[in-house]
Design goal:
The structure is a homodimer.
Chain A (H helix, E strand, L loop, with lengths): L8 E7 L5 H14 L4 E2 L8 E7 L12 H22 L7 E9 L2 H12 L2 H8 L5 H9 L11 E4 L2 E5 L2 E2 L4 H9 L2 E7 L5 E8 L3 H8 L4
Parallel strand pairs in A: 1-3, 2-9, 4-8
Antiparallel strand pairs in A: 4-9, 5-6, 5-8, 6-7
Chain lengths: 219, 219
C-alpha cells in the first residue's frame, strides 16, 4: 500500500538549522517530489501521509547564509531518498527493489506517466519477482502509458545491458541480466527518445508473498 | 493480461442474417463497449485484439426488417457478454470473478474511471482472493480514482448486503458476505450518488497462482 501521492507514511525530519517555515517549504516540496512522491509498491494509496520538517535553529547556521541553502537542500534530498528507499524495500512481500529511470521524456509529467505505467503493471512486476529480463512486458507498459512513443526510438536497459533498441531486441547476455535482477536492487532504464527530461522512480516486484499477506487476513 | 482496450483476444462471430457491414458496425461497437471493453484481469493490455462479425445472409432475414435490429442487437450483446465473462473466468490464476457494478455516476466515463480504479487495485483484488469483505480498500480505490466523490453519498454493496453507506460501515453479516465472495462469481455494487449513469465491469481476484504463473517462467 505504498504509492506516490503519498502512501501510509509518517515522516518527521529534524534539523538544527535556523530557517523559517516559508524558507524550508520549497526545499521540502522539491525533496519530496523527487523521493517520497517517486515510490510505489502496489499503486494503492492511503490517507495517512505526513512529511514534516522541523528546524530549531540550535546550530546558529542560517539557511539564508551564503552557500548554505544548496548544501542543506542536498542533504535533505539525500535523507529523503534514503528513507523513501527504505519504505519501498520494506513493502509487503518485496524481494526486489527496482530503480526505474525513465529518461529522454518531453517533460517530467510524461516521464512520470511512463514510470507509473511500468511500476503498476502486474505482468512487469511478476517478471521482476522471477528475475526475468522480460523487456516485452516493459515495452508494452510504455506503449499503453498514453505517451505517443515511436518504438524505434525507445531503449530499455537492464543494469548495464541494452536489451531493446532500434525497434528490436538487442543481443544481450540473458544470464547476466537475470543475475542483475536477482540482486536485492537493480537498475532499469527506459529511454523514450522524445526529449531531455526524466524521473527516477523506486518500485518493487509483485510476489506471491504480497498476495498471501494481503489475502490471508480478514478485516 | 486481460484488460479493456481490448486484450489478447481473437473473437470471430458468425451470423446468417442479411446485413451490410455498415449496418452491423454500430451494433458490434455497442455490444463490444458493454462487454469486451468492460473486462479486466490485471490491467495489462496487449496488441493482439480482434473482434470480427461476419454475416452471410443465408437466413434471408434482413436486419432492416421491422423489429429485427433490436432482437439481433440483444442477441449479439448476450453472446458477447457470455464470451467476455468466459475470457475473464479463464484469466491467469483466477479463483473469483467479480461483477462490479458502478452506479449513480454523472456519466459513463466517470463510472468507468471508478470501475477501473477498483478493478486494478492490488489491495482490493487480494482481498477478493481471500473472500474478505473489505469495503475499506474498495472505498480507498473509489477515493483515489480522481472522481470528486462525497463519501457520505457513497454506498458499497457486497452481494445483497449494504456494507457501507452514509459515511460509515453498516451493520452487516460478515460471514454471509464472506460466503458470497467465496463463490466463483459475486456481485459488488458501488453507488456514487452523483447521477444516473453506470457501468457493469467484469474483473477478478489477484491470487498467488497468478504470480506463480507470471513469475516462474523465463522468456
Amino acid at each position: 500500500m505504498i504509492h506516490p501521492q503519498m502512501a501510509t507514511m509518517l515522516v518527521y525530519l529534524f534539523t538544527d538549522i535556523a530557517a523559517s517555515a516559508k524558507e524550508l517549504q520549497p526545499l521540502l516540496t522539491t525533496a519530496c517530489d523527487h523521493t517520497f512522491n517517486c515510490i510505489s509498491v502496489d499503486g494503492d494509496t492511503s490517507t495517512n501521509d505526513t512529511l514534516l520538517l522541523l528546524a530549531n535553529g540550535e546550530s546558529g547556521v542560517r539557511l539564508k547564509d551564503s552557500g548554505v541553502a544548496r548544501k542543506f537542500a542536498d542533504a535533505l534530498l539525500s535523507v529523503c531518498q534514503s528513507l523513501a528507499l527504505q519504505v519501498v524495500s520494506d513493502g509487503e512481500g518485496v524481494k526486489h527493489v527496482i530503480h526505474l529511470s525513465v529518461e529522454q521524456a518531453k517533460d517530467r509529467a510524461e516521464a512520470m506517466l511512463v514510470a507509473k505505467s511500468i511500476a503498476h503493471s502486474p505482468l512487469v512486476k511478476t517478471a521482476w519477482a522471477g528475475a526475468d529480463p522480460n523487456w516485452g512486458r516493459i515495452l508494452a507498459a510504455v506503449g499503453y502509458s498514453g505517451v505517443p512513443i515511436q518504438v524505434e526510438k525507445v531503449e530499455i536497459w537492464i543494469a548495464r545491458q541494452k536489451v531493446f533498441g532500434h525497434g528490436v531486441v538487442q543481443k544481450f547476455n540473458e544470464m547476466e541480466a537475470h543475475r542483475a535482477l536477482s540482486q536485492p536492487q537493480c537498475e532499469i532504464r527506459v529511454k523514450l527518445g522524445r526529449g531531455k527530461n526524466g524521473v527516477v522512480f523506486y518500485t518493487t516486484d509483485l510476489t506471491a508473498e504480497y498476495v498471501h499477506i494481503n489475502a490471508d487476513y480478514s478485516t
